Amino acid sequence: MLRHRPAANFVGVLGWPLEHTLSPVIHSAAFRQVGLDWLYLSWAVEPDDLADAISGLRALGALGANVTMPHKETVMAHLDELSGDARTVGAVNTIQRIGRKLVGHNTDVDGFRRFLEEDAGVDPRGMRALVLGAGGAARAVVRALDGLGVAEVAVAARDAEKTSKVVALAARAQGRSVSWAGAATSAPSCDIFVNATPIGTGTGDPLPDVTWREGQVVVDLVYDPPATALVERARAGGSYAWGGLGMLVHQAAASFQIWTGQDPPLETMSAAALHAIGTLRRDH
Question: What pTM, to 2 d.p., does this model score?
């Protein structure tokens, strides 16, 4: 006789395309570690189908979801409420069900802040920062750096209008725009540099001609490979340099806490991510 197994609670990730996401691996490991019978699914959703996908989450009883490119901005129109960071940054990467409401959060801000403070051990108060990029990740980084007390945040991107909007997120620090070509000139004099573009995924370096100096803090939000060309060159020049895995794990941990109300098992989540990256690189 077949026994019916009650459906587990479930969450997942929405994106398009959705070929190489570490979220299912990270969260599934966390659920196992704390003993939660939850499922984490992957939903490849084309942009034109996003509204239907959100309706599906409501109808099927999903407890939440992660949201990745290209839906982080457009998903906001389909949610009932937005948290402070999501509203300010203008992007959602985590959806939480509260009763019948779907609430949008942005855990990238908290993820970068926690990485910088807890993993890197950097106190950015009074420092001058340069952020490369003008997308959702760059906006989250600027928001986090501003909250941590940097003195100046410069933003460099190809689109001048988008750059200005990212700079405007610096409410306390002095913000300024830098042209894409001017980033290489500004980088050597900054205290903190953050690459918030996809350049460096696999191969490549966003600023190949920059000579990094001793004592600079360099963060590349690209997490595969764990040590990008930018990170390796910065370390060779004496800079303190990190890849994006720390932020990835911390933003996932913040999502986990929002959904479950439990403290996230950070070490388990980080180990699962590292193992998955190693497996992907070996298989390719």
Answer: 0.92
How far is residue 141's CA from residue 202's CA, in Å, rounded to a whole number? 22
The answer to the question of residue 4 being in a domain is no
Cα–Cα dist 251/194, whole Å? 16
Torsion of CA 252, 202, 116, 34, to 10 degrees: 30
Phi, psi of 198, deg, nearest 5: -80, -5
The whole-angstrom separation of Cα 57 and Cα 1 is 32
For the stretch 248-264, pLDDT in tens is 999 999 999 999 999 99
Does 3 map to a domain?
A: no
How remote is the C-alpha of 171 from its chain's centroid? 21
Interval 134-162: pLDDT, tens: 999 999 999 999 999 999 999 999 999 99
Residue 1 lies in a domain: no
Q: Is residue 47 classed exposed, middle or buried when 0-12, 13-18 and 19+ CB atoms within 10 A define those classes?
A: exposed
Range of the structural domain that residue 56 is part of: 9-105+247-283
List the structure tokens of 84: 């402070």
CB 90 within 8 A of CB 103: no
Left if phi > 0, otherwise alpha if psi is -120 to 50, otherwise beta: which for 195? beta
Six token digits for residue 248: 């990835």
Give the chain's mean pLDDT. Answer: 94
Residues 130 and 171 occupy one common structural domain: yes
Distance separating alpha carbons of residues 247 and 118, to the nearest angstrom: 11
**What amino acid positions are annotated as catalytic residues?**
72
